[in-house]
Fold:
Amino acid sequence: MHSFPCLAPAAVALVALLTACGDSQPLTNAGSGPETPVVTAPVARYSGVAPDASLPGPFAASEPREYDLGQYLVSDGDNGLAYNVDVHGQVRAPTSGSGPFPVVLYLHGRHVTCSYGGFEFLSAGICPEINGLVLEIKPVPSYVGYDYMAAHLASAGYVVLSIDANDINDKDLTGDQGVQARAQLLLHHLDVFRQINLAGGEGFDDLKGRMDFSRIGLMGHSRGGQGVAHAVRFNQARVNVLPALPGDPEGFTAPHQIKAVFALAPTDFDRHTTPGVAFATLLPYCDGDVSNLQGAWMFDDNRALEGDDSGPRFQILARGTNHNFYNTIWVDDDYGSDDPYCGSESATTGRDVPEDQRRHGEFLMSAFFRAFVGNESTFARYWQGVVRAPDAACPNGSGPCDARLLLSAQPGSQNRWLIDAFTSAESLTANTLGLATTLQGFVAPSICTSAQDGSGCGSARTYSVASQLQLAWDAPNASYQTLLGGLDVRGYDTLNLRAGLVVGDARNAGGQQLVAVLSDTAGHSAEVDASRFTDALFDPPGNPEASNGAKTTLNGVAIPLTAFTGVDLQRLQSLTLRFPHAGGALQLTDLMLQKR
Structure:
């Protein structure tokens, strides 16, 4: 994020001061252009619809191919405990075309490892064999639970590995809960298949030379989400951390070129960040396992990385979804409450059935990898907020379903300009540019930071660890105004913030309205109702008293600058956020300009 420590509070010669600070802004005085741009037609929320990722692609694809390549020694990052794990999983790959094809790896989370007659349990390493049993004790193959996605992704031109981490699940009750072991295991799988790509072998001679290891994507579910996040930094340092074993080929443990990481309903016990890669996390609103939505912590921590980190960050809140149903093997409903929204048996439930949950799961995960690993621009437009999710990603295949899939996006450092992140009480009187901020009509506005248990802000169940501006009002048209000092923003295309309504506050019934107003130095103003472009300002559904009920999440509000008709984008004087409803309470953060 850009900050400007040498700016005085006065709004004088802002452009010259930015130059004096040495901040190389790509947008200041970016070309000539009209002094007062005029938009003659209403700006549409979307320009189209993203492709359907669940359709077969142009390549013939293999059936899932099992592999079992011996064992590998992993270790706990806290206590150093070392143990062997199977190098086992399945792969799908294109059988037509020469490639090379990008590589995507799936890592499941902590689930039971054995089953007997419908009873499932964790074992001590392998599922026991007991003579005289009527039914066989079988391993629970969590790694096959994402094959519904892998099949279509392989036909689109990707090699997809889904790896078996059951041996870690049996031993991750202590230490770092298996996070380092999962990172080591997934990197070893990549090592093995990189070697197969170079020399063939292990029954995969047909894949020799057909995998592109300069383009790798990782998806992890639950504790697997924490594992793939940890793998990014572990991979970057692995030359020193993970030396080659005796007999390993030269370069076997060299770092991999990981381009993108998707954390699906992840745990985040140790607050992991993923520098230098595209990152996305999915938060299931009705998650009964990771019920405090720890993926929100991941997004908050990742979006605040300093310096020239160019990796884009995304958070998707999926309303009506639980933890398990993205995996076809995990058939139990982890949400056990009778909450009116999340309880599956409630007459007013908002829950997705498993098939519908996987509809959007496949779209989001496959579209992410096809955009940021495969560089497919048609899918990148979804992540830019330009096109909506396809109908096939919606319940019953009927769309649109924008209100169920709430996207928050933050581009890399070179494509954003921070106005305020509300990190201290100073934000009540001045923005990050050093210019004045005025709050009118609010009851005791303040800055808060939520704790990991959800406390600390106005909403007692706030699932975000970002610093936030908390606002409450009891009369219409309370307003936040911040000066911009004649700012030239023509190099940007979107005004962005994240907002969430306080749970259980009667003033929020039916949701809220936010009107953004931009004014220029010549006195022209334009206002835009944010609801034209976002569904983020919803009253959180569910029981605010239930342990896993209503919750406040901070969701993206993105307004195209072209919607502000008749304002001179070369000379913006102020930004006002106005709340027309007679009362309300919400929290917001990350007020910025973005280039999509």
Remarks:
- Confidence is low (pLDDT under 50) at residues 1-40.
- The domain at 65-410 is CATH 3.40.50.1820 (Rossmann fold).
- The chain has two domains: 14-32+417-594, 65-410.
- DSSP finds nine helices and 25 strands in the chain.
